[in-house]
Structure formats: structure tokens, C-alpha cells
Amino acid sequence: xxxxxxxxxxxxxxxxxxxxxxxxxxxxxxxxxxxxxxxxxxxxxxxxxxxxxxxxxxxxxxxxxxxxxxxxxxxxxxxxxxxxxxxxxxxxxxxxxxxxxxxxxxxxxxxxxxxxxxxxxxxxxxxxxxxxxxxxxxxxxxxxxxxxxxxxxxxxxxxxxxxxxxxxxxxxxxxxxxxxxxxxxxxxxxxxxxxxxxxxxxxxxxxxxxxxxxxxxxxxxxxxxxxxxxxxxxxxxxxxxxxxxxxxxxxxxxxxxxxxxxxxxxxxxxxxxxxxxxxxxxxxxxxxxxxxxxxxxxxxxxxxxxxxxxxxxxxxxxxxxxxxxxxxxxxxxxxxxxxxxxxxxxxxxxxxxxxxxxxxxxxxxxxxxxxxxxxxxxxxxxxxxxxxxxxxxxxxxxxxxxxxxxxxxxxxxxxxxxxxxxxxxxxxxxxxxxxxxxxxxxxxxxxxxxxxxxxxxxxxxxxx
Length: 464
Hints:
Blueprint: H1 8-17, E1 23-26, H2 32-43, E2 48-52, H3 66-77, E3 90-94, E4 97-104, E5 113-114, E6 117-122, E7 125-128, H4 131-140, H5 161-171, H6 179-185, E8 189-192, E9 195-198, H7 200-206, H8 210-213, E10 219-224, E11 233-238, H9 242-256, E12 259-264, E13 267-272, H10 276-289, E14 299-303, E15 307-313, H11 334-342, H12 353-362, E16 369-372, E17 376-382, H13 405-417, H14 422-428, H15 434-446, E18 450-453, E19 460-463
Parallel strand pairs: 1-2, 10-14
Antiparallel strand pairs: 2-4, 3-4, 5-6, 6-7, 8-9, 10-11, 12-13, 14-15, 15-17, 16-17, 18-19
Helix pairs in contact: 2-3, 7-11, 9-10, 10-12
């Protein structure tokens, strides 16, 4: 946290905003245990400030004895197990009152308890960690990560030799280079008392059937017709090793996004609904950095008429927060990130968040929205379909509407040409009468598929 957070102006701003995920306000008479619990809760989250001498009602009361308050805060830091090693509390004058402030840094290496209780700061509240949250935090802050574990029953037979050989060829390794040594160095194998065994990372990257060992290690892609979840959707469940999942998920988005025309300068050019490089970064980041220890939840790529959401299980890892996500780097799955990097999917130096923001700005789009949920992380990419001429959703999205073959032909023509006239529809379906074709078009207008533009002979239709 920046030292500026301890300036009188910044502290006043923090107090006026009230208690939050990175700020705990305590009255001057708070007990040493109450202070210790506040410190441990922030240390188990993303750090923050414990401010002694301000109330939850945003009132600055100050401390009566600054030296006693500082000693109290220093003693409180030693109560958690293990003790918190922190800078000395700061004494800051705000509106004529003295506040005692302890700064809890982000990215601390341990999980902290107070008298056997593990607490965490969540929103405006301090609460006990749930069992699965504690387990995840212990894994994230220990030397042995989840990806390094070896599932019971998994042997070398669970790995696909063809995938491993393709990886060797990609690295251009000489024939004498031992494959087992390579996979050991990449964290894909581990030495156990039963000999070499594949790790979670190894199975996800090179397994014959990764979902046998981690059922939730998959991606669900869904394309909805409108801005909310509805019965009008296309769904695809994407499985296999991680490299295949990335390719298939990108192909799903590519096949189900809208395309239209836009004018740049004096030129008309075809443009997709979402910048493909931004889509690719969002999917790769979700696959590379998700928390694979969370079961019963998977990566979801949800496409709506106005946005796309890429959700991955697991909150931001280590010391990364929404405030520093562009600058800071931390890999929850170091082995997976390294191999995907060598396969050309990801740059090991960072998440690519800055590139996503830059490309969206170049395309005239708002930057992606980054959101932490109670158990995951979500990236929202905004659609530019509204600014494209003739952009329409994929035809198979409306299979449930029972369109006739003539109408399907019309939609296919619209997808390619952006507009259709009565004369063009007659050319597509020469055996149908003009009245039949007129009813076809009117039916598609009623169903919300197309819009009628103009009057009489100047009439044409575009995708809605």
C-alpha cells in the first residue's frame, strides 16, 4: 500500500468512505484482541489499514494517549499466530484529533489465526474463513501448490505420449534429452515413494483424460440471444487438455460472435463483435490462473447481446488485487503457466491485462471490467456490435423458432451481405410466390430477427 495512504487527507477520505474491504475503523477503547483480529483479517485478505480512533459511523474521536495507543497496536500485532511483523504504527493528526494507524501489507506469506480462529476481511465485515476458503488460502501461501499434488491412482500411463512428443518437438529438444527429466523440471512429474507419478499440472497439460482426475477442469461456453440469461442459447462443454480447451473456447466465441461493417476514415471494413486478441487473453488467463482446487465449478464463457463474461473459479491470487492488477504479477499455477508459455499461449512476464485494455481503447471500446466474486474472478468485455452495420447473431441461435428453409436461406444471406431486398429474396427462392415470401419476412420481423427499413420499392431488411 502506498505511503500516501497515511497522509491526513487520504486518511480523512478513507474514514469518510467508511469501513470496507481494506479499511477497519476501531474506537479509541478497542481491546487488544479486537485490534489483533482486525489485523489478522486484513492479513488473510489483501491487506489494508486498521485505524484506531475512528468509528464505523465515520466519526473521528481520536486517541487520548498516543503512546499508549501505539503500544497497544504493537502488542496486538504479536497476538496472531504466527505473529505479524509490521512497521511501527503511525500517529497521524486528522481534524485536530490523533489517530493511531497500522498498515497491513498485501501478499503476506502466512495464514494468520487469533486464538485458533482464522478470520478474513470480506466487504465491510470481518468473518471466519469457511473451511474451503482456509484450505485454498493455505495452498496459495504454502510452498506446495495444488498443481504439484499427485492424485491417488494416477500413473505414467495416464499421460499421452503423443502430446508429450509434440511438446518435445516444439522445444526442439535433442533425442538424448530424457523425457522424464524434462517433465520433472516442468513440475509435470513428481518423485514419490511409489516412483514417478504425474502431478495435477502434468495431467491437465498432457493427460489422456484430464477430466477423470479433475471433473471440473473444463470450460462451458454459452451464447444467449439477449442481454440476460434466457431459453434462447447455444451451449458447448469443452474438455480435454488445457491447450485444446483454449483453442476450442476461442473457436466457440469466434463462431458465435456477430460480424458487421464499420467505416474508418473513408474505408469500409469488416469487424468482429469483440477484438479477437482480447478474447484470447481473457480465455488464456482464465485457464492458466484459475484455482483448480475448487471442485464443482468450472470456467464459463458467457456471450450476451451486449457483452461477454469470462469467469474463472478462484479469487485473485497472492498479493494481486483489483487495484494493482495491471502492474502486479503472481502465478498461482507456475508449472501450468510455464508450459503454456512455451506452447505460445501466454507470456510468463504478465497476465496481458495491459494489452487487453490497450486494444479495447484502440477499438473505441470501454476497457474490460474486472470483478472479484465471493469465490471467483470475472472479466467482462463489452460488445461493439451496436456500432457495426448489419451485425446479427448466429443463425443456429434461433433453431427453436422453427424457421422454414426459405427463412434460413434469408438469414444466411443476411449474415454474409448485411441486408436483403424482396427482389434478392425472390432470387434466392424462385419457386415461392411473392406473397409467401412477404409472409416469411413479416414473420421474421415479428420474431425479432430482422428489421424492416424503408417503404414500398425502397424497402430492405437487416439483422436486428
